[in-house]
Design brief:
Radius of gyration: 24 Å
Number of strands: 13
Helix content: 25-40%
Distance between the termini: 47 Å
Shape: elongated
Order of helices and strands: HHHHEEEHEHEEHEEHEHHEEHEHEH
CATH topology of the largest domain: Aminopeptidase
Strand content: 15-25%
Number of domains: 2
CATH architecture of the largest domain: 3-Layer(aba) Sandwich
Structural class: alpha/beta
Length: 461
């Protein structure tokens, strides 16, 4: 397995400014584009470990006695085994994703929670074979580096003559296309989806969209599955050498379809308060790997918290959410918040997010939404309990996008824990080597303990 060269251990905590891993607020294309890029990622990472040290925990003895059957390490092992049985990934809409949701629901039901599974449909896209364009009149300038498939394009193998069609946005522009042509249009004026549909309606076998002069090659999207022909983006300098009537052979293999996943929600049946404190973690991985730090660590911590609270005689009113398709644009958490009625939103007093809480070289960060008393209270609780664990942490921004963002936009106070993405915190971020050996289990336990205490504190306020 590619993660074999990613070392693991209970690393000493290095204080630093954590780089939030996520896209800018509201952006959907960034994480969706990762689905394309990750099909071609390389594997392997090596990082020099610092001297091991264990975060202090008053519950260390309890953890060691129960770890064989439950707890953070047991949940991490279970998620790794799920990935091992399903082609090494737990990405949204895959069998590994469904098995992860099944495991989470089964553990929560066994602990006595009322479990709800909320079905989520979303557009899925992946490149199976990189696109290739061959000319009969010579090499294509720039080669494959000058070609980019639009997200959600169909695959296929087609051959036909080049025919220019302006911007491809009006009937007049596409009127000259003939059946089997490779339509070549300029970027702009209408959406890529409309260009594709018009080209297909006019009989084109494929559509090439030329960039503006000087523009870099972009990751563009159709927005959703649509035209039944290949749609590719070309660099301007490549497109300008193509002549009307010259024949091109275009081939690529993709998978573009609607898929489904599930949010898993859990409520304690004995709770009587109408006010609900929530804690959540996304359950999917990136397509490239098992996603044991991103976000198996958050899932393992959240399950550990849920099981420990369920064992209490008088548990607080807490709801747990395990979100679908975060890696594709916060889809599960967005749909959950959108479906809440006004009174249901008012009942949620706060939301605490756990995403990447076991980075192998952690840079611990606490973040919270601005100007919300409950969020500020959560932030103080998290920092206080981290100090009790012997962990120094920075305060970061909640403006970047993990699953707390839909709650914050709905006016719900949010806070979260994060230990870093990319080098140096997690060199295996969104890579095949994000396996069990990439997770700092001791840090994940400490984050689970911290989040549990903060959650109980805010729920009982």
């Amino acid at each position: 397995m590619a993660g074999a060269d990613c070392s693991v251990g209970l690393n000493g905590v290095v204080l630093g400014v954590a780089r939030l891993k996520f896209m800018s607020a509201g952006a959907l294309l960034g994480p969706l584009a990762l689905v394309i890029a990750l099909s071609l990622v390389g594997a392997g990472c090596a990082e020099t470990q610092e001297a091991p040290s264990r975060p202090r925990s008053s519950d260390a003895a309890e953890h060691s006695s129960r770890e064989a059957i439950t707890g953070v390490a047991a949940h991490l092992r279970a998620l790794q085994e799920i990935a091992n049985r399903h082609d090494g990934t737990r990405a949204a809409g895959t069998p590994g994703d469904r098995a992860s949701a099944d495991y989470i629901a089964e553990r929560l039901s066994r602990a006595g929670y009322d479990v709800t599974r909320q079905r989520i449909r979303f557009p899925y896209y992946r490149i199976l074979q990189a696109p290739k364009i061959q000319r009969t009149s010579g090499a294509l300038p720039g080669g494959r580096r000058s070609i980019r498939p639009l997200q959600f394009t169909r695959g296929g193998s087609v051959e036909g003559p080049v025919r220019r069609a302006g911007r491809g946005c009006t009937d007049a522009e596409t009127a000259g296309l003939r059946r089997g042509d490779v339509a070549l249009v300029r970027r702009g004026e209408c959406t890529f989806l409309e260009k594709g549909r018009r080209a297909q309606t006019a009989g084109a076998a494929a559509l090439l969209v030329a960039g503006h002069p000087g523009d870099p090659l972009i990751d563009a999207t159709l927005g959703r599955p649509g035209p039944a022909i290949p749609v590719l983006f070309l660099a301007h300098d490549t497109a300008k050498v193509l002549t009307t009537g010259e024949r091109l052979r275009i081939s690529l293999r993709t998978r573009s379809e609607m898929r489904a996943s599930e949010n898993v929600l859990a409520d304690a049946p004995a709770a009587t308060s109408r006010r609900i404190a929530m804690l959540g973690a996304h359950l999917d991985s990136a397509p490239a790997g098992a996603g044991l730090n991103d976000n198996g660590s958050g899932v393992a911590a959240a399950l550990d918290i849920a099981e420990r609270l369920a064992a209490e005689d008088n548990p607080p009113r807490v709801r747990f959410g395990f979100w679908a398709a975060e890696e594709l644009g916060l889809i599960g958490s967005r749909r959950y918040v959108e479906r809440l009625g006004r009174s249901e939103r008012r009942a949620v007093t706060s939301y605490l997010n756990l995403d990447m809480v076991g980075s192998p070289h952690p840079r611990p960060t606490v973040y919270a939404s601005d100007s919300k008393p409950a969020a500020a209270r959560l932030e103080r609780l998290l920092l206080r309990h981290l100090r009790k664990e012997g962990i120094s942490a920075r305060v970061g921004s909640a403006s970047k996008g993990s699953d707390h963002l839909p709650f914050a936009r709905a006016g719900i106070p949010v806070a979260g824990l994060f230990t870093g993405a990319g080098r140096p915190a997690d060199p295996c971020y969104h890579r095949r080597c994000d396996t069990l050996s990439n997770v700092n289990v001791g840090m994940t336990r400490a984050m689970a303990d911290t989040a549990r205490r903060a959650l109980v504190g805010i729920a009982r306020d």
